[in-house]
Amino acid sequence: MVKRKTTKSDAEETQIKRITNEQRKDWRTLPVSEWNTLTFTVYFTEKNAELYGVEYVPLRNWRFEQAQIKRMLDAYGPEILRQACEECFRDYKPTREYPVLTAGFALSYRVNTIIPRLVAERAREERRAEVVREGPSVTELEAWL
Predict the structure, then answer these.
(1) Cα separation of 64 and 138, whole Å?
(2) Which of 23, 31, 34, 76 could staple 80 via S-S, CB 3.0–4.6 A?
(3) How do residues 12-70 score in pLDDT, each as one tens digit?
(4) How deeply is 19 buried, as exposed, middle or buried, from its count of CB atoms within 10 A (0-12, 13-18, 19+)?
C-alpha cells in the first residue's frame, strides 16, 4: 500500500470554506441559511434606502439592534427571521415621525405576531411531508383495491 503525500491544494480542498465579511454583507446572493447579524444589519440598511429613500438610523443604537438580531437568530433561525422581516417591510407604512423601519422596532414589536404563524406553517408543512413519506405506496394501494 502506497501512501500518497498530502499537498497544500489537498489540504485547502478539505478545509471548510469560510465566508468573509464582504460576502456576508451581500445579502442578495448569500444563501439565507448563512445569514448572521451583519447580514441582517446590512439588509435593513439597504432595504430602507431602497423602499423609503432615507438614511438608516438604528432604534436606540447599533449594539441594541445587533443584540436583538442575535437573539432572534438564536431563537428562530435565519430562514424564519428573513420571512418575518420581509413581511414587516411589506406591511410597514412610513410616517413623518417614523420614516424608516428599524430592525430594533421590527424585531421588538412587529414580528411577535408574525413568527408564531410562520413557525406553525413550517410545522404543518413538515407534518404533511412526513405523512406523504409514511403513507402507503402505489403498489400497496393497488393491492388493497
Answers:
(1) 55
(2) 76
(3) 544 567 888 888 888 999 999 999 999 999 999 999 999 999 899 998 899 999 999 99
(4) middle
Does the reported pTM lie above 0.90? no
Amino acid at 84: A
DSSP string, 121-140: HHHHHHHHHHHHHHSPPHHH
Return the C-alpha cell found at 3.
Answer: 501512501
Helix, strand or coil, per DSSP, at residue 95: coil
State how far the Cα of 116 lies from the Cα of 75, in Å rounded to an integer: 12
CA distances from 19 to 16, 38, 139 (A): 9, 12, 47
Helix (H) / strand (E) containing 79: helix 78-91
Burial (CB < 10 A; 0-12, 13-18, 19+), residue 77, is: middle
What ranges in 1-145 are assigned the alpha helix state H?
Answer: 8-14, 21-25, 37-52, 62-76, 78-91, 103-105, 111-134, 138-144
Residue entry with cell 499537498: 7
Question: Does the pLDDT of residue 6 top 60, yes or no?
Answer: no
